[in-house]
Amino acid sequence: MSDRYASFARSGAGKALVKRLGLPDPPKLRRYREGSALIEGPVLVAGSGRLAEGLAAVLPTGTVEVVAGARLGALIIDATSIVKIADLRELYEIGHPHARSLMPSGRVIVLGAVPLAAQSGEDYEAAVVAQALEGFTRSVGKEFGRGSTAQLVRVAADAGVDEVRSTIEFLLSGKSAYVSGQVITVGAAEVGTDSDLSGKIALVTGAARGIGAAIARTLARDGAHVVCLDVPAAGDALAVVANEVRGSAYQLDLNSEGAASRLVDHLKSRHGRVDVVVHNAGITRDKTLGKMSPEQWDQVLGVNLAAPVEVTRALLAAELIPSGGRVIGVASIAGIAGNRGQTNYAASKAGIIGWVRALAPALAAQGITVNAVAPGFIETAMTAKMPMVTREAGRRMNSLAQGGLPIDVAETIAWFAAPGAAGVTGNVVRVCGQMLLGA
Question: What residues does the Ketoreductase domain cover (predicted)?
Fold first, then answer.
């Protein structure tokens, strides 16, 4: 569904009215297109941290000198070595001269240390500083405007440029257009030499339409053979998507008895393994708790939460996910902030977040990463059916003043799935344009 307000706000007459009345001003976002540069404009890497020099050397866009007023495509502040409150002044000294020089759809990335629990009453200051970086970054994301985004990347002490490079490139690129105000942790890992997903087998549930179809297309674009799964009722649409991405279709109701075992048998016999598992299938049965039926509760928890947990457990037990594998869940902002009339849905999506955080350390030794995306307001057929006032509120109440697109969720999942993201696990990244409430 088209965003008529955004189209009007970008017109000549609309720009003047929006400015005069102080209305939301949705910028045109820079999204990835095949053949496009990683980022438009130079990248400034500054700061006293341990990664700045090595990172500047590998960025294909190059760097610029610290010159006040220079037009920048991105500003990267390496604060990994800051451990004292007084040293936070460095954020101001770097950010202040360039606060107004970022190009439209520019990027700000702050690198920080992973906060550690204080071992005595004297070593808590580093943890204080690590958390302060989060407040600074989120505020920048809401302040700079014109489609710019800001992120905090926490880098483990034993991780270096090799581990963080994939994340930096994703955040600099148009692929992260609707990701802002996020905190991402990167740990030490053995990063492979593969540049894409060529030769990989990817499973995408709920692939017949909307976000699931976008995920299937994006993973196929990056080289994967995609097994597209959806319920039998969506068989025709599923076949269209599978044919489009030159993958394969598999019809299965994940809420049915024995579904996980049947899926394991199918993947084992057809492919022998599955390198990327994307749990996208989800349903809503919205009612206030007092009016909700037991069936509405059970259906949502079954599809949205129990199925991902059981399917992953079965795939791991059958040893179908190899080292280097990726497990990716789709949560929701509703699982973080809650939502009226969605106690079942919010519980299921919050459960996905808890599952990711619990499973990640357990699978780290096997070289398997586990992450989740948490979409906010995404323009889909479902959101198009919302009442107009609710839909407009969802679109405008974020730092980018617009809804996201299915491709925004798909690109974030493709980054999680990429070989270079081996050090990214246990993360929940909100694809919400930095919602102003609950995020």
Answer: 200-381
Asked which of 186, 212, 232 is the last residue of a domain, the reply is 186
Residue from 32, 178, 250, 345 carrying the catalytic annotation: 345
Active site residue 5: no
- pTM more than 0.90: yes
Q: Which long-range contacts (CB under 8 A, 24 or more apart) does 300-306 make?
A: 300/344, 300/345, 300/348, 301/344, 301/347, 301/348, 301/351, 302/255, 303/254, 303/255, 303/348, 304/345, 304/348, 304/349, 304/351, 304/352, 305/347, 305/348, 305/349, 305/351, 305/352, 305/355, 306/255
Span 35-46, mean pLDDT?
A: 93
Both 332 and 305 in one domain: the answer is yes
Q: What is the CATH number of the domain that holds 145?
A: 3.40.50.720
Do both 262 and 388 map to the same domain?
yes
DSSP class of residue 306 equals I
Total domains present in the chain: 2
Residue range of the domain that includes 136: 24-186
CA 104 to chain centre: 21
CA–CA separation, 105 and 260 (whole Å): 43
DSSP summary character for residue 349: H
Tokens describing residue 381: 């057929």
Spell out the residues 6+ positions from residue 342 whose beta carbon is closer than 8 angstroms to its own: 284, 286, 334
**163 and 262, same domain (yes or no):** no
Q: What is the pLDDT of residues 134-145, one digit of tens each?
A: 999 999 999 999
Last residue of a domain, one of 137, 163, 186: 186
